[in-house]
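F.,

This is the one I mentioned.
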């Protein structure tokens, strides 16, 4: 067995997979289900000074991505403090409490959640691009609490600079990223009905968000010396590997927990373990930041072919827009003089019969 344990500030986690703030952690019952589903730590839905009133409909699964117009928790802070958080503490897992948004909101809510929090995560989704309000919110949290204060950044800002501004204001860690948008989805089978209520726009999450979030984690890890929790489009163990290699110390999952249920956390953690074993990585530290030290590749040679493992599926041939690849008796061949060294075939081959040659 590979060792998937992670130490995050004072929290000892069995593995790096936890929920992200959303309806999957809307109350203590949902958080208990997340724990039973194998999450290594818990994160609450964002609690603000007053309950959110959300539009309906507010979620749509469009497969390559997911849209939502949820805001923060529809429960008032009193319900969290009096009923939900005491019940969550009984679960016994480390708890990150998500709080939003302004310094005044944080100053009002943070002291009330203090007895229950192992860390807090400040959502900056509605505070704008100017770092000032975010920094004021961080300082308000630091004044009220003696646990790590994390900042959750949204992907539509200059993320490395935002992380530096958060670090300068005293943040102890960064969570990246929140959903992207505003975005639009149209139900063409129903006369062009918009999928989302409210203003008709939604925020995008799920698989399509992953490359944006991964880039954000990569930039943050190169900008500040703080632990980063990656979030966006994670649904498999191999997604977690990518985030760890980009510099994340742990990850969060929201959309996949909505669409596949709370057992997804444990399944992702088990897949991570299997992947690590298969690839000979003994622990998480051996993976963390591996991509940060890579120079961007220079492709000076055509791909190297391994015809003996080519299945003749033709996927690379179809997509080689330079007509450099062809099949003969179900075996792959290359016209080297035509190869433009675009690299596309390397990602198309399901059998690893094409590899990077330098
Ligand atoms: C329905 C829904 C509600 C969400 N609510 C919150 C929230 O209250 N606070 C927050 O910080 N992020 C919220 N998010 C953003 C997620 O925590 C996460 O950052 C984002 O969805 C990307 O991760 P994913 O692709 O795993 O969903 C929400 C996302 C969804 C889909
Ligand atoms: S690198 Fe590009 S041009 Fe060369 S064989 Fe592959 S897909 Fe074709
Ligand atoms: S994609 Fe791979 S397996 Fe399929 S034809 Fe090309 S080299 Fe062969």
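My design for it:
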């Amino acid at each position: 067995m590979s060792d998937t344990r992670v130490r995050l500030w004072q929290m000892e986690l069995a593995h790096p997979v936890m929920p992200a703030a959303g309806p999957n952690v809307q109350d203590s019952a949902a958080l208990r289900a997340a724990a039973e589903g194998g999450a290594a730590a818990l994160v609450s839905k964002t609690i603000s000074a007053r309950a959110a009133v959300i539009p309906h409909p507010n979620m749509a699964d469009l497969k390559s991505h997911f849209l939502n117009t949820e805001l923060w928790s529809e429960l008032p802070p009193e319900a969290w403090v009096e009923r939900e958080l005491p019940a969550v503490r009984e679960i016994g897992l480390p708890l990150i409490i998500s709080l939003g948004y302004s310094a005044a909101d944080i100053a009002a809510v943070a002291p009330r959640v203090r007895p229950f929090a192992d860390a807090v995560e400040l959502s900056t989704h509605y505070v704008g691009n100017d770092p000032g309000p975010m920094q004021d919110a961080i300082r308000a949290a630091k004044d009220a609490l003696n646990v790590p204060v994390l900042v959750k950044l949204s992907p539509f800002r200059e993320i490395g600079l935002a992380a530096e501004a958060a670090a300068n204001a005293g943040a102890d860690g960064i969570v990246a990223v929140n959903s992207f948008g505003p975005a639009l989805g149209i139900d063409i089978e129903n006369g062009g009905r918009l999928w989302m209520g409210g203003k008709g726009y939604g925020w995008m999450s799920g698989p399509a968000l992953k490359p944006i979030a991964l880039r954000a984690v990569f930039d943050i890890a190169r900008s500040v010396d703080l632990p980063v929790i990656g979030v966006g489009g994670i649904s498999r163990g191999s997604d977690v590997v990518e985030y760890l290699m980009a510099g994340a110390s742990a990850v969060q999952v929201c959309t996949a927990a909505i669409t596949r249920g709370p057992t997804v956390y444990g399944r992702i953690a088990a897949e991570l373990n299997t992947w690590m074993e298969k690839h000979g990585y003994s622990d998480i530290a051996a993976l963390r930041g591996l991509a940060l030290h890579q120079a961007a590749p220079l492709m000076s040679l055509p791909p190297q072919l391994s015809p003996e493992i080519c299945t003749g599926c033709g996927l690379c041939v179809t997509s080689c827009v330079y007509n450099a690849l062809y099949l003969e008796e179900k075996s792959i061949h290359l016209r080297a003089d035509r190869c433009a060294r675009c690299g596309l075939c390397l990602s198309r081959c399901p059998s690893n019969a094409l590899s990077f040659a330098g």
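The CA atoms of residues 49 and 105 lie 5 Å apart.

Talk soon.
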